[in-house]
């Protein structure tokens, strides 16, 4: 074979392998997190309070593209949750009909959500699920670092809840109203679940929030809907709020 033919053959072979090789894997990059906010003496890292304050911008915020930190990993595990984590307190109980269990062993928490909801990326939150047709009907969970060991270290619960609803969850043009508050102790850990309504001139939203502290983190789960659908779906959403548990990590 001549030198020219050999070079041509080598070039054709290289082009074939190049065209048939798999494309490089893309790397997920987490979003930069910055500003800090202080709440009850706790440094609130990378949590944008405006997400909860302006209901009119809610849909735009829900449309943030991409998956949040390591969400692809958790989702990959999610389908096998029952098999991989059979000792989870949540999974040890009988799962209510028409609900699915979300268990995050990495960040230490679990909860139920309606089985026809789908996951979505909500800015500043670790996990979130929403109704397929009504975006405002959803559950989302966030956590922040804390040196507290129990929610009662934050202060009297009535004052804590009132401050959260009036100064953290609501916007300046919204009227906040706490409807009910319940405390419970599960396996030595205290939880507080409260029902509240935020009303503005053109919009009203009701929700349950459950707070707990564990693993050096202050967890907050919020599940709610717009006021028109609240009466119909309140009991369904209460199951979600009551199912939240902190797992030791």
TrEMBL record:
<dbReference type="InterPro" id="IPR002683">
    <property type="entry name" value="PsbP_C"/>
</dbReference>
<feature type="domain" description="PsbP C-terminal">
    <location>
        <begin position="98"/>
        <end position="246"/>
    </location>
</feature>
<dbReference type="GO" id="GO:0005509">
    <property type="term" value="F:calcium ion binding"/>
</dbReference>
<protein>
    <recommendedName>
        <fullName>PsbP C-terminal domain-containing protein</fullName>
    </recommendedName>
</protein>
<dbReference type="Pfam" id="PF01789">
    <property type="entry name" value="PsbP"/>
</dbReference>
<dbReference type="InterPro" id="IPR016123">
    <property type="entry name" value="Mog1/PsbP_a/b/a-sand"/>
</dbReference>
<dbReference type="GO" id="GO:0019898">
    <property type="term" value="C:extrinsic component of membrane"/>
</dbReference>
<dbReference type="GO" id="GO:0015979">
    <property type="term" value="P:photosynthesis"/>
</dbReference>
<dbReference type="GO" id="GO:0009535">
    <property type="term" value="C:chloroplast thylakoid membrane"/>
</dbReference>
<dbReference type="GO" id="GO:0009654">
    <property type="term" value="C:photosystem II oxygen evolving complex"/>
</dbReference>
């Amino acid at each position: 074979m001549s030198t020219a033919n050999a070079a041509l053959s080598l070039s054709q072979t290289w082009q074939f392998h190049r065209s048939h090789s798999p494309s490089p894997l893309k790397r997920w990059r987490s979003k930069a997190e910055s500003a800090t906010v202080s709440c009850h003496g706790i440094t609130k890292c990378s949590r944008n309070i405006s997400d909860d304050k302006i209901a009119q911008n809610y849909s735009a915020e829900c449309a943030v593209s991409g998956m949040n930190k390591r969400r692809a990993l958790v989702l990959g595990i999610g389908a096998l949750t029952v098999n991989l984590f059979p000792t989870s307190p949540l999974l040890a109980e009988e799962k209510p009909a028409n609900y699915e269990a979300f268990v995050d062993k990495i960040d230490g928490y679990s909860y139920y959500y309606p089985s026809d909801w789908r996951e979505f990326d909500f800015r500043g939150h670790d996990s979130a699920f929403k109704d397929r047709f009504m975006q405002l009907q959803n559950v989302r969970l966030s956590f922040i670092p804390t040196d507290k060991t129990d929610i009662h270290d934050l202060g009297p619960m009535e004052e804590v809840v009132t401050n959260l609803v009036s100064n953290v969850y609501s916007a300046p043009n919204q009227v906040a109203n706490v409807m009910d508050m319940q405390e419970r102790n599960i396996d030595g850990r205290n939880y507080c679940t409260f029902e509240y309504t935020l009303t503005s001139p053109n919009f009203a939203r009701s929700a349950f929030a459950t707070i707990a502290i564990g693993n050096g983190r202050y967890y907050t789960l919020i599940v709610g809907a717009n006021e028109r659908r609240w009466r119909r779906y309140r009991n369904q959403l209460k199951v979600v709020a009551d199912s939240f548990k902190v797992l030791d990590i």
